[in-house]
Amino acid sequence: MRKRRILRYVGIAFGVGLVAMIGLFGVAWAMTPIPDSTQKEATAQGSVIYYRDGKSVLAKQGVNRRNVKLEQVPEHVRDAVIAAENRSFYTDSGVSFKGTARAVWSTVTGKQLQGGSTITQQMVRNYYSGLSQERSITRKFKEILISIKVDQSKSKDWVLEQYLNTIYFGRGANGVQAAAQAYFGKDVAKLSVSEGAYLAAVIQQPSRFADPQGADLDAARTRWKAIVDAMTQTKAITPEQAAAQVFPKLAAPKAAFSLKGQAQVMVDRVREELHARGYTDEDINGGGLKIVTTFDKNLMAAAERAVKAVVPSGTSKKIRTGLAAVDPATGEVVAFYGGPKDQSWDNAFSAKVQAGSTFKPYTLAAALENGLSLSTTVDGNSPITVPGASQPIPNDSGRSYGHINLVSATQNSVNTAFVDLGQKVGLDKVAKVAEAAGIPAGQLEPHKAAASFPWAWPRSAPCRTPRASPASPTAASTWRPTSSSR
Known catalytic residue: 85? Predict the structure, then answer.
């Protein structure tokens, strides 16, 4: 009688415990929705910066990933991954309870965490936000719940596509497309059965199999062979096809994309332009942008040759040289040279110097636009005194040219002649022409009342490299945006 009572109590306790567990599971199920956001690292795609032709790569920025549709991945590559990671992928519920129990037990006992996660579980862990990589029962339970929900609400093909684009393959390659390029120098669509099996092998130990040597190479061959054999068990390939497979030849690992010569300066300018257009560093490093610059690869090399050809040998390193070539039709910078690659300062874009005599053409244009002719005479003596100048204005070396026409004044770049011309035309009209050519009004305003404005703008402050304004895109003396995103 007593024994029967004890059994009844045990049964009641078991039933209560079971109901409680079901209730707790139900609460956890209801309180664990599929996250509505993804991990930034899982979906980020690096951007590629091109030269003017849109084909020659100037630089790569950010995460090495290029997402592809599942149909772009050959079936034998998908089969290799499934054979290696989760043979029951298309039939299971998104969770391997046996493998999960093994992993949980390893975590509880403090042993090394064992495998056992399905492709769905791995995808959920790496793809959705709110799931960390920590080894805890709580995180594992949350992963299980979300995996089951994903399996119920998403197609298996969708899960596999996200997985293949998310998983890390070593060699800095995120996703199967980047991995195909990193290991075999080809797009994923062109991978052979043997190559696909190797990428599937890499998933388990990406660091070890990235560039295997010695014992690691033996281990990689063994893992690859096991996957090829597994593909026969899943009937992805026949035993005859498996026997014909040869261990693939791996491409030599490439060093991280390095910038040489003027490339870093170009990239700095591109990022500056993109920031001005509202793009953040996060957009550039993870937004998968295709950025086409105005820089011409051949003209960049020509610009460097041109500068080096005119600088005498033995010239002191204290002498700075720079060049910028602008397309007169668009105002775009097509080439530049900012100095030797071991020089931290860029003379083409960053140097703050006076415009000097390069501003004189604006004064000449203002004169011609306002009715004066090239035969107009101006005072080229040195020095001359004009209203608004605190002291007499001289020519270089104090040389006097007398009264000369605008052709001679321009040919000899006579400072006083252009000061006199500015007085005749009106400094406000000179400023108006310069603004119409693309120099921002804000840069002209502080200096346009100075008597020296017509020939040496600005005489009293450093000059910033002018940028083109939207209303004046055709001036050859201004910088147009160096990049565009597509």
Answer: yes
Strands 57-61 and 403-405: unpaired
Measuring CA to CA, how many Å separate 110 from each of 173, 204, 304? 31, 21, 62
Strand pairing report for 323-326 and 333-337: antiparallel
- Give pLDDT tens digits for 262-309: 888 899 999 999 999 999 887 888 888 999 999 999 999 999 999 989
Could you confirm whether 134 is annotated as catalytic? no
Give the whole-angstrom CA distance, residue 339 versus residue 414.
30
Amino acid identity, position 86: N
Q: How do residues 360-414 score in pLDDT, each as one tens digit? A: 999 999 999 999 999 999 999 999 988 878 889 999 888 999 999 999 999 999 9
- Separation of alpha carbons 377 and 371, rounded Å: 13
Instruction: Write out the two tokens for 304.
Output: 């460097």
11-56 tens-digit pLDDT: 565 555 555 555 554 545 455 566 766 787 788 888 999 999 999 9
Q: What is the pTM of this model?
A: 0.63
Average pLDDT on 238-248 reads 96
Q: Is the pLDDT of residue 482 over 50?
A: no
Residue 16 to residues 9, 13, 24, 476: CA-CA distances in angstroms?
Answer: 10, 5, 12, 84
Q: Residue 418 corresponds to which tokens in the numbers above?
A: 């252009």
CA 349 to CA 363: how far, in whole Å? 24
Q: Are strands 57-61 and 47-50 parallel, antiparallel or unpaired?
A: antiparallel
Locate all alpha helices (DSSP H) within 203-262, ordered by sequence.
206-209, 215-233, 239-243
Given 85, 161, 273, 304, the catalytic residue: 85
Distance CA 137, CA 143 (A): 10
Among candidate residues 326, 370, 364, 340, the one with its CA nearest the CA of residue 465? 326
Given 357, 408, 469, 485, the catalytic residue: 357
pLDDT at 479 over 90: no
CB-based burial label for 160 (10 Å; 0-12, 13-18, 19+): buried
C-alpha gyration radius of the chain: 35
SS3 content of the chain, % helix, strand, coil (to 5): 50, 10, 45
Non-local CB neighbours of 111 within 8 Å, separated by 6+ positions: none
Residue 94: count of CB within 10 angstroms of its CB: 23
Give the model confidence (pLDDT) of 347-356 as tens digits.
888 877 777 8
